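Task: fold both queries, return tokens.
Query 1:
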Amino acid sequence: MTRLVQLAIVVLSGSAVAVPVGGTPCTDDRELLAIHGSWSAGADVGGTAGSGRPRGARQQVSARIDRLAELVRAASPEPRGMEAIWYRTLSAGPLVKAGPDAYGLNALYKAWSCNQNLHQTQLDDETGTWVHVFVNHLGWFAEEQEAFQVDGRPTYLLTPRAGAFKGIPAYAGIHNKSSNTGQTFSRAILVTRPGESPLVPVTRRQLLESFVRFAAAQAASQRSMIEKAAMDPARKADLLRRIQQGVEKRQAPARARLEALSREDGDQPAILGPGGVLDFKEFATEDRGGCALVRPDPRYFAAKAPPHAPQVVIVYWRWQKSVASQAFRDGFEQRFDPSGVAALLDR
């Protein structure tokens, strides 16, 4: 009896297939989907952001991560053709100063594959199939614009919108690219209290005014270095002239937009194109792949909530084009229940 027939019989009988030993005969990756994988726990990652936590905080954080892990495991109870490992990240940098504890959950899914040269099963060492849950911090949900602030607050550039997931806006993750493990795709959702968000849009007016100041500050820094440098006076004067011409050219689109900006237009969210913040030319729209610029809103975080309680949760999943990884994506998106995450907020 061939391995494929054995697998088919077990699936039809409704029983789980025992995890195969590497080297089991096979002919095609698709037959390995009949293998019902299992879950195991990996070692915790401590992190450094929680070093000053009071005694007992680790247990409080671990308990909340474990509740989130139950939801993730429920979405893939027996990963088809894969073996899953989950582990805790016990601390991370908080989204806002003096905000609630930040931590997370990671789950990786290693696929069984069929070696086409040996026609034997093997468990892949590397994987591009993951679920990440970021609690009270943004993780890979948004990219901090480290040098660009608005009203003294850091700004973050979201990834492009990607429709909705069970009524919640979905975003393309940062892992939509090719790597050593193949072509990867990703999605993310932000789970918050109904009608609230820890992120507020940067308006067009705020972006334009901040960009003009930002470009001027960068030019001033360059100008200062040139002025202090020992060099031929004529060369120095030429470099200073070029810096001034460069900053004027860089500021021109923003200045022109500001001059023509109505009050209503200025209050619209700033949606940026491929150039992002640092190379602003014109605003974009989300339906054409533009990305929103946002900043944290400290008012969102409830002071009365327990310090370890999730107040904002990002669920981020990624997959590849392989047979098992696509099956993971289909099953996860069908079964994962974001309302279960919402029920854990502020608790």
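Query 1 returned. Query 2:
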Amino acid sequence: MPNLSMSGDRIVKGELQEGEIVKFANAGDYVEIDFSQAQDGSKVQRVFQILLEKADGSIKTLNLNKSSQKSLKPVYGANTDDWVGKQARVTYVKMSSFGKIQDVMVLEAVQ
């Protein structure tokens, strides 16, 4: 299993467009990330990271949010080993995130 915490090539906000199709390149894993400005360990959170293959063939890391997990789990199952090679469609929904209403990326299963 690859160590996803070592990857510096992450998907950034706005990089994926509405309707874009991506493919799961691995089963992902839970990692602890320090989100504090000073990187002093004061804001460590456990997140699920997974590798996505974009349409151009590049592979990048995504912190898979709970909304995406809830959307994908009923179709692809709870075991993310079964997600490898499967596709997802990028959508954006307005929701409260970090105290503001903003567009949040949600992945949906492609059937």
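Both queries returned. Flag for query 2: Residues 4-109 form one domain.
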